[in-house]
């Protein structure tokens, strides 16, 4: 017998009053397997937070159904759903101690004080806050407050944890540290985690499955590797980092490989995952996989003119201009690689792997 999914969205839509012709969420269907880590990835206004709020019961869908383990919970309030939510603002109580915050839900459930204290201390140890039970919220760093919010949600042993931009507002070091801790907690507890984020690095690092959203619709669902290596269209490609794009003058379909014609160059490309509509195709490359062709080497594209070289810390971002006026940027590592070309130089470009990605410019029908 097949185990029901932890969460199912069945053609869920949300339209707010006064904007009846513009759905914030537009007929989204999504299946989230039990025990998985799924991220909703998209820019501001893509509908990802609204989806999370509807799953948590804080916003009612205009149409469609929401199911937990096969049970329709569309009309149930948040407290009757088998999930906990960590909001972006955390919602911690400043007048309570850390232990009071973590144990708040247990208190509402009527847990005896001794059992509550045992569970709180165990959970604080799990999130590396042992010994912090008596502290007040204002005495904690941003990362420690995030851990308190995690502990407060997880101490109730929910089957589903919803995280709304869980790493927002932290510096890079703390973001990486807490990202690793969230991944560790997911693996240890085996609960279903659903996160909302606009950061592709977080989504790709944490998730089993990522759903990329734009304008209330899902553009692509897949594993991080699938999105990284085979984005469905130019929007997904740019959002997950293949943001060095070129518009070809023409494309020639083939059985094993397609050809994009840019200037006088014929660029070998992987066949597009989806056929394009009127928007046509773009050649999509990851900037870190592009390099200046060496002396005597026939590059994949060129000649191009170097117009700028900008230091970015670990890399130098080199901006080039093609003969038709299009620009293409690529990255040169500061350490361990060749020196970046200087502005004013004329170079050929090469890339790894040999075949570039060819993707539809706009949302398109399946090939």
UniProtKB/TrEMBL annotation:
Keywords: ATP-binding, Nucleotide-binding, Transport. One of its GO terms (biological process) is quaternary ammonium group transport. This is ABC transporter ATP-binding protein. It comes from the Bacteria. Pfam families: ABC_tran, TOBE_2. It comes from Methylobrevis albus. InterPro entries: AAA+_ATPase, ABC_SmlMolc_Importer, ABC_transporter-like_ATP-bd, ABC_transporter-like_CS, Mo/tungstate-bd_C_term_dom, P-loop_NTPase, Transp-assoc_OB_typ2. Residues 7-240 form the ABC transporter domain. PANTHER family: SPERMIDINE/PUTRESCINE IMPORT ATP-BINDING PROTEIN POTA, SPERMIDINE_PUTRESCINE IMPORT ATP-BINDING PROTEIN POTA. One of its GO terms (cellular component) is ATP-binding cassette (ABC) transporter complex. GO terms for molecular function: ATP binding; ATP hydrolysis activity; transmembrane transporter activity. Belongs to the ABC transporter superfamily.
């Amino acid at each position: 017998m097949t185990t029901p999914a932890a969460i199912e969205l069945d053609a869920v839509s949300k339209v707010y009053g006064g904007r009846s012709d513009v759905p914030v969420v537009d007929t989204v269907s999504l299946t989230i397997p039990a025990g998985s880590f799924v991220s909703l990835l998209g820019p501001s206004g893509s509908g990802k937070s609204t989806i999370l709020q509807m799953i948590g019961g804080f916003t009612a869908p205009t149409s469609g159904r929401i199911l937990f383990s096969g049970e329709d919970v569309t009309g149930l309030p948040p407290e009757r759903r088998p999930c906990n939510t960590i909001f972006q603002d955390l919602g911690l109580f400043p007048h309570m101690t850390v232990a009071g915050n973590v144990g708040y839900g247990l208190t509402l459930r009527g847990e005896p004080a001794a059992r509550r204290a045992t569970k709180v201390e165990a959970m604080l140890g799990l999130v590396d806050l042992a010994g912090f039970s008596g502290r007040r919220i204002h005495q904690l760093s941003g990362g420690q407050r995030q851990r308190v919010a995690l502990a407060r949600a997880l101490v109730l042993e929910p089957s589903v944890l919803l995280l709304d931009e869980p790493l927002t507002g932290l510096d890079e070091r703390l973001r990486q540290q807490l990202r690793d801790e969230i991944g560790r907690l997911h693996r240890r507890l085996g609960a279903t985690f659903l996160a909302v984020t606009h950061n592709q690095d977080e989504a790709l690092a944490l998730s089993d499955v990522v759903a990329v959203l734009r304008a209330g619709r899902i553009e692509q669902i897949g594993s991080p590797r699938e999105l990284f290596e085979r984005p469905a269209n130019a929007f997904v490609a740019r959002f997950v980092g293949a943001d060095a794009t070129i518009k070809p003058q023409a494309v020639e379909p083939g059985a094993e490989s397609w050809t994009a014609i840019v200037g006088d160059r014929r660029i070998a490309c992987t066949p597009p995952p989806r056929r394009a509509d009127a928007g046509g195709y773009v050649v999509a490359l990851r900037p870190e996989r592009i390099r200046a062709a060496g002396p005597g080497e026939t590059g994949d594209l060129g000649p191009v003119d170097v117009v700028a070289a900008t230091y970015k810390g670990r890399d130098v971002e080199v901006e080039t201009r093609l003969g038709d006026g299009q620009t293409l940027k690529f990255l040169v590592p500061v350490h361990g690689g060749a020196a970046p070309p200087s502005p004013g130089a004329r170079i050929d470009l090469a890339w790894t792997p040999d075949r570039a990605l060819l993707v539809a410019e706009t949302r398109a029908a399946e090939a």
